[in-house]
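Good morning C.,

I know you're traveling, so I'll keep this short. The sequence:
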Amino acid sequence: MVDLARRLGLAALLAVLAASPAHAVTAASAPPAKDEVTMELRENGVLHVKETVTPAGGTVRRTPLTRTRFDDGHDRVYRISNVKGGSYDGQTLTFKGTVEYDVTGAVTPTASGEELRWFAVSGPVQDAVVTVTGPGRVQNLSCFAGELSAAIACTSASVEETGTTSTFEQQGLGEGQTLTVVVGYPKGATGARPILERRFELSTAFTLNAVTGGSLAALLVLLLGGVGLLYWTRGRDARVVGSESGPVSGHRDGRFSPPDDVRPGQIGTLFDEQADVVDVTATIVDLAVRNFLRIDEQTRQTYDTPDWCLVKLPGAPLGQLLPYERALYDAIFDGRDRVLLSELHGSFAARLTTVRDALYQDVVAQGWFARRPDSTRSRWTTLGLAVVALGVIATVVLAWLTTYGLLGLALIIAGAALAFGAQYMPAKTARGAAALAHTLGFREYLTGASIDDVPAGQRVELFSRYLPYAVIFDSVDRWARVVSAFNGNGRQTDHLYWYQGPAEWDLSRFADSMRTFVMTTSGAISTSRQFRSL
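The tokens, ready to paste straight into the viewer:
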């Protein structure tokens, strides 16, 4: 009975051990006892491999090394094909017992011949034997075992007496270790070359050398020269302004005469080729000076925000207004007789688009521009941004596929230059250039005119007439101070016919009032975002 109990206990213990996880892992992960690999290097450079694992009961999975670093800019690629007796998914080779496959790209030309290098066996395996035959006599051979970068020789390497067959052996190849075999053959034995693929690296994608640097410089000269040529042929005024001659007089026969009877808004758009906030502000002042409306400064306390009331004057000859002036006049009043400057929003802001378009159409109707300046700028800006986008795409493609990524930057720079230069592409016609020459002369007169040049009885009216133009040329401070100095019969004048101040206000305060009005009006117009701000 005791002997029977001992036997039963031993049997139970063996059953427990057999079913334990540790035993299962050991049994399942036992390495193959022997791995025999036969390799034949054919004359076309293809390496045919046949691998046999003993015992052949379990499934063997290998992860062949198919890519290594070749140089600073390329990887070497080994391509596996024609798998028989197993399967290969591009990464893992799976088989039972025996598998055959072809390798392309394992041969490298050397100074003295050709060299075959292949990672023949992957561990774990107890004994590995590799036999290699080739298209010529073996000139040299070597083998390495262990980690891929290891320089430890394998157990043995030999060549048969015929000189065409090499044999390599390795014992105890562990997990993650590889047996690499290298065999040298005479020059021209296969004529094969390694398969190289460019490896993307930022440092090499934008390589600067004599070729890339010279190409970049030449391309920049070509592209930027093209942008300059575009401006010279398409964006330059038809007539050089400096060729215009003849001083512009400020007044004639006691009456002020702006150049060619051009209105302030027109001058502003002609001058900088932009429909600006200041052009609209100057037009509002001009409408007041010409008796289409009156500006009444509102009474305020010390810390109150200044405000003005724009008053529609009855009987004004609205038919004399230019389209952009009428559009602005209607936007201000919009069915009402008076409106506070602080209340100019809503429909006023929405209708400023019409004012802007009418200003651009006016300068074309005057014959100063062949096309609307804003349309010209938009067209060239769009083209410049398209070139920048093309340059970005070209840079990415060139950097990914070649080392000429710098050439794409030339397109980006040229496109940015074109987009920036679009601001200078609107070109004045000969008539526009002549009007600008007169305008520049008129500006010089405004900055240097003296009150003594005008008869005393006409100074208020005449200097008021020039004030809107001073707004355009940013001379409102100086001109308003001139108007502030006017007096009648030795007494300080209380107000202007077009500008009314609050109680106890006189022209001595006009300069400060006008400066603040211009700034406040420009701010109210800027909130509409329809015009370029100052």
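Safe travels,
E.
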